[in-house]
Amino acid sequence: MDSTTSKQTETKTAKHNKQKDTRNKNSKADASHRIALEPADSRRLANLNGQFDRHLRQIEERLGIEIRNRGNQFSFIGQQGKAHAAAKILQQLYRITEKEELTPDEIHLALQDNSVEEHMSEAPVAEQNSSKVEMPLTLIRTKKCTVKPRGKNQQKYVRAVQTNDINFGIGPAGTGKTYLAVACAVEALLKDEIERILLVRPAVEAGEKLGFLPGDLSQKVDPYLRPLYDALYEMLGFETVDKLIERNVIEVAPLAYMRGRTLNNAFVILDESQNTTREQMKMFLTRIGFGSTAVINGDPSQIDLPRGIASGLRHAIEVLEGVDGISFTFFNSKDVVRHPLVQRIVEAYDDFDVQQENSDK
């Protein structure tokens, strides 16, 4: 057992040293950037570095650079833009260590948040900060937790939801569309800005038929709204959510039940909207009444409608673009905040679809 572990450790070390050797060969094109993290707190520095410096190794592997440190002094060796990006990320993470314990997941999300590619300019960190005016961080406060949108697209999405009556969140799975929409709805309810929350979803599933499931249409659709319920439970607690559902303050409404209704003073979330037809999308959008906010989320690459039926989401993007009071936020694989593999899977499928389209031409 010990020999196996030892061999694995040796293999990882050899791989890491090989990466460093490769970077050293390109040292002529590389630059070194140095920072000092203040205050020099040993506990916070240990938190930042991680066990056996695994947090630093994680950043190195993602950016293809080398990080050296002694105490609170850090140097970054690699392409100038990447070195400056790593320094900025480390400074932001060090601020977090004052109140939070960092984990590999947090490092991954920080690398996503910072849209690393955008920070890979040749300008030093100080110059970047002085020449760019950053928008204030938007936080969503709920009963059980405070939700911090991660990355520019999530921040943009939340600001749009808070300032527009109808909002579209369009992009792949794992980008936080549904979770943030629920958080905005809960915050608005707690502030008495709305009177109820409606969770809506079309009754179309990936390669499946709902007819064999027991119960009425609402009960058939209910299990597929589990991600929305999970978010509600996390933000309000089980007892509070159950009471609000009993009082119809939180309502589950299959899309087919929306016809003929006018929704005033409500926060309505339509999930999986790529599976609406043109007629259903138009019907849904015209239900919105006074004092209401609607969030329509979907992924055009995951359409499960029968062949020959156009997606209402795709049609709405074309028809409603530029209409005052309606916002569109487009997410991409760089905004995925799940396991790093999810981002690579999304990118692989996108590349394959592009190749297929090109070959068809």
- Could you tell me the number of beta strands? 11
* Strand portion: 5-15%
Number of separate helices: 14
Mean pLDDT: 80
Distance between the termini: 56 Å
Radius of gyration: 24 Å
What would you call the structural class? alpha/beta
What are the secondary-structure elements, in order, as H or E?
HEHHEEHHHEEHEHEHHHEEHEHEH
What is the strand and helix layout of this fold?
Elements: H1 2-25, E1 31-36, H2 42-49, H3 54-63, E2 66-70, E3 73-78, H4 80-96, H5 104-113, H6 125-131, E4 140-141, E5 146-147, H7 151-163, E6 166-170, H8 177-190, E7 196-201, H9 217-221, H10 226-236, H11 238-246, E8 250-254, E9 266-270, H12 278-285, E10 293-298, H13 312-320, E11 326-330, H14 340-360
Helix pairs in contact: 3-5, 7-8, 8-10, 10-11, 12-13
